[in-house]
TrEMBL record:
It comes from the Bacteria. It is a multi-pass membrane protein. InterPro entries: AA_ABC_transptr_permease_3TM, ArtM/GltK/GlnP/TcyL/YhdX-like, MetI-like, MetI-like_sf. Pfam families: BPD_transp_1 (PF00528). Residues 21-209 form the ABC transmembrane type-1 domain. GO terms for biological process: amino acid transport. The keyword Transmembrane applies. Belongs to the binding-protein-dependent transport system permease family. HisMQ subfamily. GO terms for molecular function: transmembrane transporter activity. It is found in: Cell inner membrane; Cell membrane. This is L-cystine transport system permease protein tcyB. GO terms for cellular component: ATP-binding cassette (ABC) transporter complex. Keywords: Amino-acid transport, Cell inner membrane, Cell membrane, Membrane, Transmembrane, Transmembrane helix, Transport.
Length: 221
């Protein structure tokens, strides 16, 4: 028995796939910006003196890094409403991705900060900068330059993990693919096209982020 491929049957559903792809791009863009910003804040907290806040942040990082993303998502979607905090599927998906990327990027950025020569901190004091000004103007840029390729890879991992949010009925690319498959029963064709979309998105995202790194940070990645 041979299987007859029927890609033309997917043509009427192309707008739905593209709409799902656009939603994935928008979700990823917001999660990347907010997650990296959260990671920078976390790295600054974790790189200073040991305080109650740094310990709490450390617990948050360990909790996220040692639990599945899907469990984190379900906790936000189904657990938080029990505490009176109700979110839409889109809000829950974005929050879960930001929290996840924030934890991982905290440790990635902190690794770059830890190898920063102490002389850079001293140079900031000599120039009359506060600790926060020294961090933002002198320490952070070269630290980001060192770890930028790893940070880009983590952002792409989070983008690929966004496919999980289809489990809470958020209408991104995987949700659209599942819906089309249930209507057409063309599993091979639907998921092959979806795989190619994710592959294309990963390649483009990597190239765009690396180009931005070379432009603004002088990264060689």
């Amino acid at each position: 028995m041979t299987y007859q491929l029927n890609f033309p049957a997917l043509w009427p559903y192309l707008p739905e796939l593209l709409a799902g792809l656009l939603t994935t791009v928008e979700l990823t863009a917001m999660a990347t910006l907010m997650g990296v910003a959260l990671g920078i804040c976390g790295a600054a907290i974790r790189s200073g003196k040991t305080t109650l806040l740094s310990r709490i942040w450390g617990l948050y990082v360990e909790a996220v890094r040692n639990t599945p993303f899907v469990v984190q998502l379900f906790f936000i979607v189904f657990g938080l409403p029990s505490l009176g905090w109700k979110l839409t599927a889109g809000q829950a998906a974005l929050l879960a991705m930001v929290i996840n990327l924030g934890a991982y990027s905290t440790e990635i950025i902190r690794a770059g900060i830890q190898v920063t020569p102490k002389g850079q901190w001293e140079a900031g004091r000599v120039l009359g900068f506060s600790r926060s000004q020294t961090f933002l103007r002198i320490v952070l840029p070269p630290s980001l330059q060192r770890i930028y390729p790893a940070l880009v890879s983590q952002c792409i991992i989070v983008m690929l993990g966004s496919s999980v949010v289809s489990q809470v009925s958020f209408e991104e690319l995987t949700f659209a693919a599942n819906l089309i498959q249930s209507r057409t029963f063309l599993s091979f064709e639907v998921y092959l096209v979806t795989t190619l979309f994710y592959l294309l998105l990963s390649v483009l995202m990597r190239q765009l982020l690396l180009a931005a790194g070379r432009r603004f940070l002088g990264s060689q990645g």
